[in-house]
Amino acid sequence: MGGFDGGVVAAVSSNGEYSFTKPNRDSITLLAGLGVEGDVHAGVTVRHRSRVAQDPTQPNLRQVHLIHEELFDEVAADGHRVRPGDLGENVTTRGIDLLALPTGALLRFGDGGAVVEVTGLRNPCLQIDTFQDGLLKRVVGRDPETGAIVRKAGIMGVVREGGIVHPGDALHVELPAPPHRPLERV
Q: Which of 108, 81, 93, 107 is nearest to 154 (CA)?
């Protein structure tokens, strides 16, 4: 997988109803401070049902879900067929090591002006195994050396600047000033 240069948007997805998967779109519109226009997870406060049940007033740090398409290639080696939008992401990328980004990195999309600030790692849930049995253990595991939990099901972010995002848009990363904080689950 690439570093932080040369990334591209492989697909964009949204859904106005709660469902695990999201249909692909020709474009999505990101709204500053809210998320993806028309998506069930857009909002200033949490929208994911499990988070709403805990505390509906907490800020929505999960406005936009991004996954690297390379993950689909990785899980295909174990017989899992996953396509863009299948894991509920809004933006599927290629060529950027999303999981290695630090908290606070800015993702700039194409010429549409959209900017997403990275807030943390997606915390994969049991719905992944409902989608495809055994897939959860492929996207969440343990580092064999340290025993630390490794989450590979993408990253989350908040919309800092609105704009339209299309498949094929270039993706540029701006790193925050050091020291960089590694991503934690949000």
A: 93
